[in-house]
Amino acid sequence: MAVWSVLALLRENPEELKRHVARRLMDPSIVDLAYSLDVEWRRLQTEINELRHKHNLITRSVAKASSGEERRLLLEEAKSLLKVIEEREARLAEVEAKRAEVLNSLPNLVDDDVPVGDESASVPIEFWGIPKVWVGYLEQFRDQVERYGFNVKYELIDWKPRGHADMLEEVLRLGDTVKAGEVAGSRFYYIFDDLVWLDFALLLYAIDKLTSKGYTLVLPPYMLRYRVMSGVVDLGAFKDAIYKVEGEDLYLIATSEHSLAALYYGEEIYDDELPIKLAGISPCFRKEAGAGSRDLKGIFRVHQFHKVEQFVFSKPEESRRIHEEIISNAKEMFQELGLPYRIVNIASGDLGAPAAKKYDLEVWMPAQGKYREMVSASNCTDWQSYRLGIRMIRRKGMTREYVHTLNSTAIASTRTITAILENYQEPDGTVVIPKILRKYLEPFEKAPKEYIKPRTPTRNMNKRE
RNA sequence: GCCGGGGUGGCCGAGCGGCCUAAGGCGACGGGCUUGAGACCCGUUGCCCCAUUAGGGGCGCGCGGGUUCGAAUCCCGCCCCCGGCGCCA
Asked: Strand B closer than 7 Å to the CB of A3?
């Protein structure tokens, strides 16, 4: 009754499924393999069912056997039948394992709205705000806007803003990635005082926003078992993103999305309980193994950060609407934070296996002269729920199908801080604190309120007063 | 971590090698009765395979193995819950 949409298409129209896979720039021959394994799996299952049926009939008659001789013959027959069943079952187990592996490597279907191609095919569909554009970046700014047929108002500035990494270590002197590198490795960081306050203020702001919209606040497990983790991420993520705890069947979450998706692991949800909207808060741990030397400086791309995440379980027919809703929530927050952004409809080749459609929210970074990803909002349809065994029961008719899951960043702390350091920077290096955050800093005596001021160099980085 | 008790269908709860084809109850869903609801009566109520009109079959008692012709029932490993001890923020 409940059939995973990808499996349904595999059986009904494998050629169409191939086109979906091809749109992701993956090898569609995996579909042929999945198809033949599925057919073979079903054939074997039918065969074994028939053999078992025979065996069951014999077994039931043993107890009623009228004579010792009849009983002996029945036992003999049952035993020989068992041998055949055993052999077939071994074969089934083999095929079944292979089939599961191949099915699990199938990506989600691609939504019709998704532009087809590699990452260069991703299209900005909306711009907001008035970016500060340094004269030296004017040309490349225009290219990032006009190429897509947009006309965006900007504020031209004649001084070049310092990059967030320089702000951190040289201007504000509130971060130390050198020492962190020495004691933990590259992509780790220490941040201090005002930036820590800012980190928490951002999280509080996101929590405040989402809970006021009816999202349930969740502090989830930071580690999950393999079988759960493999339901929420694709195989590539294990290699490039996920840390494992040595000697335990536990993996550190790369986002609270993983734990939130797992909240209904193996459960059924009645349709009248949906949608279930969650706001998760957690640290996120990422290996960033596939990142090479990209964004090595500063705290844009790091092994650990805090994030408030939106996660929704929805009825299938509502997931597209909710996808728009969660990206809108993110837009609202970045508008209130006063960070100029664009929304990008991510191309099929860059989606990631779980997502049928994905929007990124990218903030203009004045010191880099580029829009950079701050938020990623995905509609995973039934890809995760199939793997996690999370189904929906429709009251009307009591029919079962897989729920849809959606996720979106609300605020990722360190990354948003980098955007603030560049966008709220003044020529003398002062950073203005976005007004919306001030009420979250107000209760704390030592928290900054309006500005973060540059600090004069001291001989010893460890003495920060 | 150690000792003891326990995990049965959506929920409660019987069963402790073969009439378990998992009793009984509650709930839910469908139908009957009713102007409507309730009460009442009947049916359905997990997963998979084949056939899809009716149906046929297999599997399923925390998870995974094992013993047996036959396992919810016996054995082993793991997970989780409750109580006690220990340890700890």
From this structure: yes
Question: Nearest Cα to A373, choosing from A341, A414, A336?
Answer: A341
Within 10 angstroms of residue A124's Cβ, the number of other Cβ atoms is 20
Q: What is the pLDDT of residues A199-246, one digit of tens each?
A: 999 999 999 999 999 999 999 999 998 888 988 888 778 888 899 888
Question: Does the C-beta of A185 come within 7 A of strand B?
Answer: no
Band of pLDDT at residue A66, cut at 50, 70 and 90: low
Q: Is residue A218 classed exposed, middle or buried when 0-12, 13-18 and 19+ CB atoms within 10 A define those classes?
A: middle
- The rounded distance, in Å, linking the Cα atoms of A207 and A213 is 10
Which of A9-18, A72-81, A148-157, A167-176 shows the lowest mean pLDDT across its residues?
Answer: A72-81
CA of A278 to C1' of B84 (A): 38
Residue nearest to nucleotide B57 (CA to C1'): A49
Q: Return chain A residues 29..68 having CB < 7 Å to nucleic acid strand B.
A: 42, 45-46, 48-50, 52-53, 55-60, 62-63
With a 7 Å cutoff on the CB, does A13 touch strand B? no
C1’ B70 / CA A343, Å = 64
A225 φ/ψ angles, rounded to the nearest 5 degrees: -70, 160
In this structure, is the dihedral angle defined by the CA atoms of residues A400, A401, A402 and A406, taken in order, positive or negative?
negative
* Tens digit of each residue's pLDDT (9 = 90 or more) over A365-417: 999 999 999 999 999 999 999 999 898 988 887 888 899 999 999 999 999 99
Report the C-alpha gap between A429 and A425 in whole angstroms.
6
Cα–Cα distance measured from residue A205 to residue A210, given in angstroms and rounded to the nearest whole number = 9
Enumerate the β-bridge partners of residue A401: A392
Share of chain A above pLDDT 90, in %: 71
Of A122, A202, A262, which Cα lies nearest the Cα of A439?
A: A202
User: Pairing relation of β-strands A216-218 and A276-285?
Assistant: parallel
**Inter-axis angle of helices A29-62 and A68-104, nearest 10:** 160
Reduced to 3 states (helix: H, G, I; strand: E, B; else coil), residue A277 is strand
**Residue A268: CB less than 7 A from any atom in strand B:** yes
pLDDT band at A58 (very low <50, low <70, confident <90, very high): confident
* Residue A272 CA, nucleotide B79 C1', distance (Å): 32
